[in-house]
Design goal:
The protein has about 220 residues and is mostly helical. The chain contains twelve helices and no strands. Helix 6 crosses helix 7. This is Transposase.
């Protein structure tokens, strides 16, 4: 083994404090790139990503360091930045608003909470939508007047239009939210007749349509 003492060993032997033993990435020594960082950041913001061209530019400004020092400084700038998850679509948020909270997946509940925290108007809207859903499913038509009053007190123009439509036929809406009977069967027959008319459009006359309606009753 050679008995020669290298430069690092001499440096360690003559160190006057522990800080002088630190070297490389553990030191806060000024870098040869420091004086050119503002220029490099400006060029980076302008879209220049080629280290060789940047090296030529700062050499013209007086840089005397190496390509490696410049490349090491630029390496963190090239690291990909975390990409925020895409915002949910309007259709998704609408679906969450119209879904019973117990039937929403946990991930969707968290996303909906994030949306509502950022939009007080939507938070007020979902409260009124869910109140109306309770009236609809539990046949609590007697709560309709108080619900209309609460809606008008909110700054929700779209819901105001819906409430005004309900008020124009208040007795029928109240009956629909209270009584157990439904016009569903009648609507079903109307839909069936319209379907038969579409199937026969331009192919036959009224007598055949009449027979098909009677035979499929």
């Amino acid at each position: 083994m050679s008995g020669k003492i290298g430069a690092p060993q001499i440096r360690y032997a003559h160190a006057a404090s522990p800080e002088e033993l630190l070297w490389g990435q553990w030191t806060n020594k000024p870098s040869v790139v420091d004086d050119f960082k503002p220029y490099l950041h400006q060029r980076w913001q302008e879209g220049e990503r080629n280290a060789t061209r940047l090296l030529e530019e700062i050499i013209a400004l007086g840089y005397r360091g190496s390509y490696g020092a410049l490349s090491a400084y630029m390496r963190p700038l090239r690291a990909p930045h975390p990409v925020a998850p895409p915002a949910p679509s309007v259709r998704k948020v609408t679906g969450w608003l119209a879904t019973h909270p117990d039937q929403l997946e946990e991930a969707h509940q968290l996303q909906l909470k994030t949306v509502l925290d950022r939009c007080p108007e939507l938070a007020a809207l979902i409260e009124q939508v869910r109140s109306f859903a309770v009236m609809l499913t539990q046949r609590r038509g007697h709560d309709l007047p108080s619900w209309l009053t609460a809606v008008k007190a909110e700054d929700l123009p779209a819901l105001h239009a819906f409430a005004n439509g309900l008020e124009r036929d208040l007795d029928a809406v109240t009956a629909g939210l209270t009584l157990p009977w439904s016009s569903g069967p009648v609507e079903g027959h109307v839909n069936r007749i319209k379907m038969l008319k579409r199937q026969m459009f331009g192919r036959a006359s009224f007598p055949l349509l009449r027979k098909r309606v009677l035979l499929t009753t």
